[in-house]
Amino acid sequence: MLRTAALFFGIFLAPALALAQGHEGHGMHHGAADGAAWRMPPMDPTMPMMPGLEDELPPVAPFLAGMGMDPSMFPEARPSEVVEMADGDTLDLAATLVRRTLRGRAFVMYGYNGQYPGPLLKVSQGATVFVRFRNEIELPTTVHWHGVRLDNRFDGVPFVTQAPVERGEAFTYEVHFRDAGVYWYHPHMREDIQQDLGLYGNLLVEPPQAEYYGPVHREQVLILDDLLLDERGLIPYGGEAPTHALMGRFGNLMLVNGTTDYRLTVRRGEVVRFFLTNVANARTFNVVFGGAPVKVVASDVGKFEREQWVGSVPIAPAERYVVEVRFDTPGQVALTNSIQAINHFRGEFYPHVDTLGLVTVADEPAAQDLREAFERLRDHADVARDLEAFRPHFDRPPDRELELTLRVEGLPVSIVRAMEIDTLYVPPMEWNDAMPMMNWLSTGTQVTWILREPATGRENMDIRWDFTEGEVIKLRLFNNPRTFHPMNHPIHVHGQRFLVLEMDGVENPNLVWKDTAIVPVGSTMDVLIDLSNPGDWMLHCHIAEHLHAGMMLGFSVRAQDSAQ
Amino acid sequence: MRTLAKDRPRVAAGAGAALALLLIVPLAAFGPTAAGGAADACVAADTDPPAYYKIDLVPTRRIPGTKRATGVGYVTFARSPFAVAVSPEGSYVYDLTLSVAQLRPPRQGVYVAWVSTPDLDQVRRLGVLDAAMQVKGRVDWNKFLVIITLEPSADDLGATWTGPVVLRGLSRSGLMHTMAGHGPYQQEPCATYGFN
Question: Least CA distance to B25: which residue of chain A?
Fold first, then answer.
């Protein structure tokens, strides 16, 4: 269906698109004249087009939601609404086409229940809710409940836990919330398209203990995202396979809760607890709160052992962090993504700042002074108690090992040559798309990202790991830097929780349960996985284009009662 | 179970077993950080720093007893709740461990390690090399030079070095260079992009 849709788009609608502007100096020959819908994503005008790439196009059909239909045909998406759900409640959730207006331009995108992001579901820890999902977009989809240790049947992985939900079909999910914290839901089919176009929402699981977190004046749930577009609209996606397979699709428009103009007004001295989720396809953010004091309290699946002061919050795709911020000084505080970007052509790092939003701090003081409580860094005894049972496993040798690597085949010769010549240095983390034309032209048909098990030589879905419920295993992840194109990978484990014990020989002194962790280039990370949830699960890179270029494996956790 | 260790730090040829020994010394033995505080105590663990980002230290041969000296630097991310350590400006925050071998102890003075930005406009003192010819400190630049100098005394070290340079090295990122004027961009004149 996707292929048909893409073909329809390519044949009938592409000629209507004119050559992309903004590439006058790049010597591009393709565009409206050649009948293709593809146009190259915007790139730094000071960066010359690589010789030999002027005529290249991704070897897949272009795809956009709605297949070029007039955005006015669709209802304007509404901001996310909060849905408080009690144990046993049912929610109807539909994935639909919506109209989104960003910076004055209308786009056809996707939304859950016509909202951006999807509804924020608030539930109590221990609750079970039912979600009657209905698919009304043109692609098959599923809903994955990211980080939630739920019944395997409802994990939302196509061909593993359920059949894809085709257009017009429905599937009811039963979601049990075993852990407190912030989680999220998103499709597990062509996330590079569906998630990027707006199919994501948060789950806020409230703990029963009133003092689980410290006192704050208010809470804010922030979803960080980016979109790749030019003056003509969204840059098309790859139909049969993702484009941007080397680095992932970095956007050039930053979104907080689906908007470009996130605003918050607080009183002087207010303490705000922010629940941060990064839903971007590829971008790791480095979130800065304008110099206001920030302490990190929790991450994916619970609290840290100890709260810590931090200067910024590096957050990789799919990760969550809970931070508390005190706004002391009246005026405006910019919420920014502050990075050292790379210009490979010039061979330079350069500072780059995106403003994600603004916090206005009023002169009027907060009604309640929380300074004393805020300045105290709490040790979380409940977390320490939970970890005690796992400490005996910390020093054991790894039970499993994975090498993170890739294979390329059929990339344009210019790209291969350039990368072989000019990749004398690869950074541990990619904070920006430093090679936009090469990245855009690389697709999942040419690039295979690989999880390789050295012990067996098996790769990706050929790896089969069988465990038993209650087992605790140590997994060593090595991100091999000596490959064609090394890159950082946020590795996500479905249905379980894990601890990052150490990286590159440096022990982690402040543990927190995670479901996603970033493995920088060249690094070796040891994680301890608590296999507490039976079923057939996935482990994969959460850069959407890497996932759909193969970087995933399956593992089984056999229920204890069936193991006996 | 260390089958993934093929990219681990390797001792430079000629450095011999002494340097290999240095590499397995617990990091806790290293000195204070350049950032003004002691580095976190660190227990030797089962994995090693990334060899890919290894810094080779090359002697200047200006000082008697330094001709055969070799050295290496390894970076690991400073401890952080986020696994990667990044400054609010977006620079990596590294713990840098330097180990030097075949360097005769000075008859007078001390060997001191410094780090600097590539254009030398900022210099920080990493620390004095200890008896095992090692030092550890913190760097929050993405591209930097490492300089080891012979200073008259550890007591009156200034903001930058005054003695002769004994060894020097460059972070791996120093290999990143302009593509103008070579390779696939041979037709692009360097001068257009500010390079001569």
Answer: A505
